[in-house]
Structures are given as structure tokens and as C-alpha cells.
Amino acid sequence: MEISECPPQKIARRVFTNSRERWRQQNVNGAFSELRKLIPTHPPDKKLSKNEILRLAVKYINFLVTALLRQTLRLNVRVDVGMCVLFTLFSSAIMSIEAAEPANSSYSCQSGSPDHRSEWVT
Q1: Can you give the residue ranges of the BHLH domain (predicted)?
Q2: Cβ(110)–Cβ(63) below 8 Å
């Protein structure tokens, strides 16, 4: 069926659906772009797929949580039970995600340096 044969309502619905999908896709891409800006990589402008952005974001969050917990423990600040439970749950979720990653993943986080950006190797 050609466009000239389609009823005007069908054409209008298709145009509306296409524009709504285009808007949704632009929204998703914008969110990934914002998330990408928050993930330290070397070089900083390295092109990453959406999958890589999500995986690196998870690793970076895990790194930050671990660094925060270590700093808290070093300062002998009292950590409440809720924080410990949250950290344990988060750590086990990260470990299960990392276990599902391909073995040849080229991204890793090395610990030990005070400058967290230098610890991310891509």
C-alpha cells in the first residue's frame, strides 16, 4: 500500500509515532552523553558504546563506594549497620555483574593511588 492509498488518520498516527520515538531516542542518547561525562577514561574523549558506558559506570561507582568505605574506616568514623549492609549488597551485585562480563574486557580499575582518575585504565 502506497502513502497515497493510506487513510489520513493512519499517516498522521505514523508521523506522530515516528516523532515520539525520535524524541525518546534523543532523550536516551542525551542521558548517555551526560553519564559519559562523569566516567573518567584515558584519553578523556575516548568514544565508548552505550554498553561500555554502563559497565564503566558500574565499576566507577563500585570504586567510589570502596574508596569511601576505606576512608571512613581509616578515619575511625562510626559506620552504622545500614551502611555496612548496603555496601555488602552493592558489592555482591557488582561482583555478579563483573562475573558476567567477557574475560577479555579491556577496562579495569587499579587501586592504591590518591588520584582516582589515574586508576582507570582503558
Answers
A1: 12-64
A2: no
Q: Cα–Cα distances in Å, from 33 out to 28, 49, 59?
A: 9, 11, 17
For 14-29, what is each residue's pLDDT tens digit? 999 999 999 999 999 9
Tens digits of residue pLDDT in 39-86: 999 898 899 999 999 999 999 998 998 888 888 777 766 666 666 777
CA nearest to 97, candidates 56, 69, 41: 56
Percentages helix, strand, coil for the chain (3-state, rounded to 5) are: 65, 5, 30
Q: Is residue 120 within a helix (H) or strand (E), and if so which, with residue range?
A: strand 120-121
Report domain extents, the chain. 38-121
